[in-house]
Structure formats: C-alpha cells, structure tokens
Amino acid sequence: MRVPLYFLHIPKAGGSTIRVKLRELFGEALCPALVWDDFYTRPEWREPRFAAYCGHFGSDLPSFLGRPLAAFTLLRDPVARTVSHYHEIRRSPGHPLHGVAARLDLWHYLHSPLTVPLVWNLQARYLAGPPALFGHLSLLFPPGPRYGLMAGWEMGGCRTAPELLWHAARRALDGLDFVATTEGLDAALPEMNRRYGLSAEPLRENVGDHHGLEPPDERTVERIRALTEVDRMLVDLVSGSGRLPDPKPRRRAA
C-alpha cells in the first residue's frame, strides 16, 4: 500500500495551485482540511481514509494523524514571500490577524509583536517547529471559523535560537520526499510530474499576487532579511545554484 502524499504548504510559497492539481489527481481521496482548525471542526477528517493531504500543517501532520506521509514542499524567496503574505492577510477578512494587519503599513507589520511571528523565519518553523501539544493549544486557541488554533500554532517556535532552528530545519529537509523553490519551479515540474503525476503545466498563478503594488523600500527589505536569515539559508541550500536536490525514492508502506 502506498504511503499517503502530503504537500506541506508554506503560506504564500506558491502552492495553492498544487492543491488544484492534487484535487484533479485524487478527487475525494484528497483530505479537505486546509488548517488545523478543520481537523477539530470536522474530526472525521482525521480518519485514515485519505490518499493525499495538502495544507498549512508544517511537519506536525504525520505525528498528529499517527501515520507516515510522503511529504514534499516548496520554499520561496523570504522577501517575496513576506510581502505576499502581508497583502494576503490584509485582503482576507477571515484571517485571525486581518484586523491588525489592515491597520498597519508593511514597516509596522514587520515590527508589531502580533504580526512579527508571521515573518520571523516562518518557513524554517513550518519545517522544524517543535511538535505541538494540540490538546493544550485547542484549549488556549479554540478551533473555529476564525482559525484561532491555526494562529496559535503559527506563533510557536519564535523563541527558538536561530542556530538551533537552522539545524532542525536542515534535518527536516532531509526527511522530505521532495523539495524545490518557487523560483525554481519550472525546472522542478518534470520531476514532480514523474513522482506524483502532477501536470507539467505551470503552477505559478498564485505567486505574483502583489504585482502593481508599491515595492518595499530598501529599509523594509533589510528588515525582512534580518527577520528571515534562516529561511534565506534554506532557500539557498535548496536552490543550489539552480540544481534540484538529489532524487529520493518514493516511500512505500511495508
């Protein structure tokens, strides 16, 4: 029996259209859950009946479900990802921090204690954040349509020392079935198609969503870089001057 597939979707790293492709490939065998709150509002989605998962669950999903998953992900240039995430939250009333971000320009968004956790090495924390105690988190951040549990989970790991975060994220990369960058997605598509049956057509419709907006000034860019040093190291490692990681065999259950 094949190990279920899991696209570890880091926010604004270019993965929304991958979900469309996974839906085409797996149909109802793709779990509908997108964020942690969904597994509490619809606990039947935790049942081991899905062949694929795609959502903002980081590396915690296999332990939460109690089943092995063949995980793959995309990383994105940290400056571009941060700017895109900021604009996405501002235009999404359903996001738990929409009301905060809507009142802040980008510079103040990068300094507010409420929103900095959505920036500070978020990609590394999605990969390597410490396993969440969801029983406790669900009491502190009640799950529901406002995605309180998701917001609480995303705050985790902000006190991790950067050097520890780097090593943990580096180990997490080694455990992934496949990884590429959004910027290198064109080169990665043939291999993704071979491994997962995803169409080799472009999947990048959702990464240019702040075109036409004022680009950040150099001071703002430097602030983002200071907050995302580990993310930058991971992107540089994966991009490898345009080279893809060494192919790994797809895992199968014993």
Summarize the structure.
This protein is an alpha/beta fold. Helices cover 43% and strands 7% of the residues.
Give the helix tally. Answer: 13
Spatial extent as radius of gyration? 17 Å
Shape: globular
Termini distance? 8 Å
N-to-C SSE series? EHHEHEHHHHHHHEHHH
Oligomeric description of these chains: single chain
Helix content class: 40-55%
- How confident overall, as mean pLDDT? 87
The portion of residues forming beta strands comes to 5-15%
Give the strand tally. 4
Instruction: Provide the structure class.
Output: alpha/beta
Topology:
Elements: E1 5-8, H1 16-26, H2 36-41, E2 52-55, H3 61-65, E3 70-75, H4 78-90, H5 98-101, H6 106-109, H7 122-128, H8 134-140, H9 148-154, H10 162-174, E4 178-181, H11 185-196, H12 218-227, H13 229-239
Parallel strand pairs: 1-2, 1-3, 3-4
What features would you describe in this structure?
The chain has a 4-stranded parallel β-sheet. With 254 residues, the protein is of the alpha/beta class. Helices cover 43% and strands 7% of the residues. It has a domain at 5-76 and 126-205 and 232-242. The chain contains 13 helices and 4 strands. 40% of the residues are buried. It has helices at residues 16-26, 36-41, 61-65, 78-90, 98-101, 106-109, 122-128, 134-140, 148-154, 162-174, 185-196, 218-227, 229-239, and strands at 5-8, 52-55, 70-75, 178-181. Mean pLDDT is 87; it is low at 241-254.
